[in-house]
Amino acid sequence: MSESVQFVDATPVLASLNILRSIDFFVSALGFTAVYAAQGEYGIVRNGAVSIHFWACADASIPKATGCRLQVRAIAQLYQRCSSLGIVHPNAPLAVKPWGNSEFAILDPDGNLVTFYEAADG
User: Fold this and answer.
1) How much is the average pLDDT of 70-97?
2) How many structural domains is the chain composed of?
3) Cα torsion at 52, 54, 60, 65 (round to 10°)?
4) Structural domain span for residue 106
5) 42: exposed, middle or buried (C-beta count within 10 Å: 0-12, 13-18, 19+)?
6) What percent of the chain has pLDDT over 90?
7) Is residue 6 part of a domain?
8) What value does the mean pLDDT of the chain take?
9) In terms of C-beta density within 10 A (0-12 exposed, 13-18 middle, 19 or more buried), how is residue 54 classed?
C-alpha cells in the first residue's frame, strides 16, 4: 500500500437513557438539527459538519462516565449561550488550557460530559 492511512472524521456516540430527550436537548440548547430518532434504539443530531449519535442505554452510570470533545468557532458566544441556560459544568468554565485551547464543558441530561474547544488564538 503506497498511500498512507489517514483518519478524516470522527463521530461521537453517546449513551442515552432517553433518545428523544437527548435529541431535544442538543436541538434546543445547542442548535443541532434532529436527523434520526428511534426511542429506545438510536438517535442522530447534526450541526454543520458535526454529528453526534446516541445509543439507547438503560444503565444510568454509563453516560456519567463518558463524554466527547467538539471543536467550535466563536466559543465565547457559545459559552454565553450555555451559561444563560445554566448548563455549564460547575468545574469547567471557559478557560485557556495549558495545551493552547479555550475550553468549557457541559453535562447533557444523562450526564455525558461535552467539552467545547477552540484554539486560544481564535
Assistant:
1) 96
2) 1
3) -40
4) 13-119
5) middle
6) 89
7) no
8) 95
9) buried
DSSP string, 23-43: HHHHHHHH--EEEEEETTTEE
Amino acid of residue 58? A
**Domain annotation covers residue 48:** yes
C-alpha cell at 71: 471543536
Examine residue 84 and state whether it is found in any structural domain, yes or no: yes
Q: Whole-angstrom Cα distance, residue 121 to residue 101?
A: 8
The answer to whether residue 73 is domain-embedded is yes
Residue 53: the pLDDT is 98
CATH number of the CATH domain containing 109: 3.10.180.10
What is the per-residue pLDDT for 2? 61
Q: Which three cell numbers stand for residue 92?
A: 469547567
Q: To which residue does cell 469547567 refer?
A: 92
